[in-house]
Amino acid sequence: MVQLTTTTLAGLLTTVQLATAHFSIDYPSWRANSLQSGSGFSQWVYPCAGVPGGLSTTNRTDWPLTGGSLKLDLHHPWTYVFVNLGLGENVTNFNYTLTPNFWNETGNGTLCIPSMPLPADLTVTDGTKASLQVVTLGDSGSALYNCADITFRSNATSLPSSDCANSPGVSYAVVNQEVNGTTTSSSANGTTSGSGNSTGGSGTSGKNSGAAMGVDMVVMTSVVGLVVAFVAGMGL
Ligand SMILES: *[C@@H]1O[C@H](CO)[C@@H](O)[C@H](O)[C@H]1NC(C)=O
Ligand SMILES: *[C@@H]1O[C@H](CO)[C@@H](O)[C@H](O)[C@H]1NC(C)=O
Ligand SMILES: *[C@@H]1O[C@H](CO)[C@@H](O)[C@H](O)[C@H]1NC(C)=O
Ligand SMILES: *[C@@H]1O[C@H](CO)[C@@H](O)[C@H](O)[C@H]1NC(C)=O
Ligand SMILES: *[C@@H]1O[C@H](CO)[C@@H](O)[C@H](O)[C@H]1NC(C)=O
Ligand SMILES: *[C@@H]1O[C@H](CO)[C@@H](O)[C@H](O)[C@H]1NC(C)=O
Ligand SMILES: *[C@@H]1O[C@H](CO)[C@@H](O)[C@H](O)[C@H]1NC(C)=O
Ligand SMILES: *[C@@H]1O[C@H](CO)[C@@H](O)[C@H](O)[C@H]1NC(C)=O
Ligand SMILES: *[C@@H]1O[C@H](CO)[C@@H](O)[C@H](O)[C@H]1NC(C)=O
Ligand SMILES: [Cu+2]
């Protein structure tokens, strides 16, 4: 629809890129440092920033069978966060979501969830390999991606609370979607005091309901649709 010259497009991309910057997964270890200049990776690239998976050098972190810790480093005033999971050694299909209600994170710094509950229909046993995909989405509708590879282990543990604290001012609200579509109310969970103690997460046990997950898949699909439309609109 909108005609863009090559120069305009390049300028626009640069602007968008600077404005949208980046995030990192501090735990479990991400697949590669996608921020490193010269790495050839780009967080704009679905599904994993262009970092190949399933290699013999893949760095896998052991994760508890009931779900493990997730530690992100975020830098925006606010951003939506989605966490997905796919089974296997070389995941192409991240078809489970760990955020049936996605998050609206605010603040600059570390967001650490002591234990991410797994969806009820995800069955894992000692040795099951999987990959996590973290997607952040800003106000421009453009998404950033990073992945981390894990092995579910019965002897794995979550991060100790001393190593899983949110930075001062960092918190997230769960965005609840209604089945009928329109909207979103937020519940405040995951707020921190400035002391460095984390109170994030929606609990350390339990599994998400399948019903909620269905809703999220619809939302996720439309988000992916938007991203695709955005990229297509940019003529890439
Ligand atoms: C693998 O992960 C560990 C733990 O985070 C890290 O210390 C190490 O540097 C990583 N290795 C590679 C090759 O990325
Ligand atoms: C992983 O899957 C991708 C996509 O199917 C494929 O291109 C790649 O070669 C696979 N990597 C390995 C190590 O099997
Ligand atoms: C997810 O995808 C995997 C591999 O493509 C498949 O085996 C599994 O049944 C799928 N699970 C769901 C809930 O769709
Ligand atoms: C997310 O948080 C930002 C900043 O607090 C706010 O402006 C925005 O409306 C929130 N979005 C939702 C869906 O709650
Ligand atoms: C976020 O915090 C880091 C380290 O404290 C600081 O260098 C950076 O400028 C901050 N970024 C924003 C957008 O506030
Ligand atoms: C857990 O078990 C795996 C495989 O049996 C082993 O490689 C790993 O070192 C064990 N981890 C701990 C913390 O004991
Ligand atoms: C969805 O909307 C229909 C028609 O307005 C209403 O009858 C139904 O109860 C709503 N369902 C939910 C889950 O809100
Ligand atoms: C974190 O909370 C624990 C238990 O509530 C408390 O013992 C500890 O001192 C707190 N740590 C910090 C840094 O506030
Ligand atoms: C926050 O999480 C706790 C622990 O799971 C839960 O009991 C509480 O209802 C949640 N609060 C809100 C406002 O969602
Ligand atoms: Cu950024």
Automatic annotation (TrEMBL):
Stretches assigned to the Copper acquisition factor BIM1-like domain: 21-167
The organism's place on the tree of life at top rank: Eukaryota
Keyword set includes Cell membrane: yes
Subcellular location: Cell membrane
Signal peptide limits: 1-21
InterPro entries: BIM1-like (IPR046936), BIM1-like_dom (IPR046530)
Disordered as annotated region, ranges: 182-207
Low complexity composition-biased segments: 182-196
Keywords: Cell membrane, Glycoprotein, GPI-anchor, Lipoprotein, Membrane, Signal, Transmembrane, Transmembrane helix
Membrane topology label: Lipid-anchor; GPI-anchor
Main location: membrane
Segments crossing the lipid bilayer: 211-232
Gene Ontology CC entries for this record: plasma membrane; side of membrane
Annotated protein name in UniProt: Copper acquisition factor BIM1-like domain-containing protein
Originating species: Diplogelasinospora grovesii
